[in-house]
Every structure is written in structure tokens, then in C-alpha cells.
């Protein structure tokens, strides 16, 4: 992470949790990310977003061999989003992972510290291979954001606003 910042690379920071880590290790993760972000050059953007996502256990070696399962509740995930906002004041965007927690939890996250509902995923192989069951159409995602009391805004990878392409609302978000 530190080397990437010296090169002025912009990216997101993540935390996969809900497997074998301790609460203390989660906080250590927050502190390390906050420290790395604070060390970036003043004119660099650094981490554009932080995305906590829950361990998806289906078909993993941890589950098969060690019996480790994801026991993270929606309430615990929502608290993680709130802690992300508190612990990472130097990262502007906190993203709710609808992919791993579903629509309802992600909607509540928008009122709990997240300012990003996530993005359209054309192809995602890591968490979907581990059993993430959630799917959205672009129209469904926009409606979920409206139903949570917010106005959806299409963005690019650098968090710049984009115009909605014609017909996008009918496309299925796949990964």
C-alpha cells in the first residue's frame, strides 16, 4: 500500500471480514489504511474509496477444512460501515457492498455512513465464486437508492459524475 502511494496510484481500499480475524485486527486494518492515506503526497488522491465486504464462505477451503462460516449479520455490517466513516475521515467515499450483504442492508448503509451504493459489475469472479447470491439490474439499483431516500448518480472510476447512457437502466448487472 505504501509503495502504491509513493507512485501516486489511485485505487480503493478494502477489508474482507467475518472469517477468522478478531475485532482488534479489524481496527488495526482501519488504522493502517488511515495511516497510509495520511502519508500520500498532498496533491495525490490516494484511496478514492473504502469498501468493507463480508467473507463469502460457499465452497471455500476455510469452510470445507476448518468449518469457518460467515456469521456477519446485517446489523454488524451496518455498524462496520459506520465505523468505517468514523475511522477513515481521510477517505471521502465509503461503499456499501450490496453484492455481499444485499439490497436492504446496503440501503440502510446509505444512512449509516456510506455515500456509495457500489457499482455495476460486468464481471466479478471472486465473491460470486464463493456464493454471493445478490443480483441487480441498473434500474433496480437506481430504484433501491431512491427507495432509501437518495438520488442515484452514475459515476466513473475516479468518482466523477457521468451521464446515464440510453438503455443502461435495462441492462442486468452481472459479475
Structure description:
The protein has 175 residues and is of the alpha/beta class. The protein contains 8 helices and 5 strands; from the N terminus they run αβαβααβαααβαβ. Helix 4 packs parallel to helix 6. The two termini are 26 Å apart.
What is the typical, i.e. mean, pLDDT?
84
Shape: globular
- Oligomer state equals single chain
Largest sheet: 3 strands, parallel
Order of helices and strands: HEHEHHEHHHEHE
Q: How far is the first residue's CA from the last residue's CA?
A: 26 Å
Percent of residues in helices:
25-40%
Number of domains: 1
Radius of gyration: 16 Å
Proportion of strand residues: 5-15%
How large is the count of helical segments? 8
Low-confidence stretches: none
Give me the count of strands: 5
Structural class: alpha/beta
Order of strands across the main sheet: 1-2-3
Amino acid at each position: 500500500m505504501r509503495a502504491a502511494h509513493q507512485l501516486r496510484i489511485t485505487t480503493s481500499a478494502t477489508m474482507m471480514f467475518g472469517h477468522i480475524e478478531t475485532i482488534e485486527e479489524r481496527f488495526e486494518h482501519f488504522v493502517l489504511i488511515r495511516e497510509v492515506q495520511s502519508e500520500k503526497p498532498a496533491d495525490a488522491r490516494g484511496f478514492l474509496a473504502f469498501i468493507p465486504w463480508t467473507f463469502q464462505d460457499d465452497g471455500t477451503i476455510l469452510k470445507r477444512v476448518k468449518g469457518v462460516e460467515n456469521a456477519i449479520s446485517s446489523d454488524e455490517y451496518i455498524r462496520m460501515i459506520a465505523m468505517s466513516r468514523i475511522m477513515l475521515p481521510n477517505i471521502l467515499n465509503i461503499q456499501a457492498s450490496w453484492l455481499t450483504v444485499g439490497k436492504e442492508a446496503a440501503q440502510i448503509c446509505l444512512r449509516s455512513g456510506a455515500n456509495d451504493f457500489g457499482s455495476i459489475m460486468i464481471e466479478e469472479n471472486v465473491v460470486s465464486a464463493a456464493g454471493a447470491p445478490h443480483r441487480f439490474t441498473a434500474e433496480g439499483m437506481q430504484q433501491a437508492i431512491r427507495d432509501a431516500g437518495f438520488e442515484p448518480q452514475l459515476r466513473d472510476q475516479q468518482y466523477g459524475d457521468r451521464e446515464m447512457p440510453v438503455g443502461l437502466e435495462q441492462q442486468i448487472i452481472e459479475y
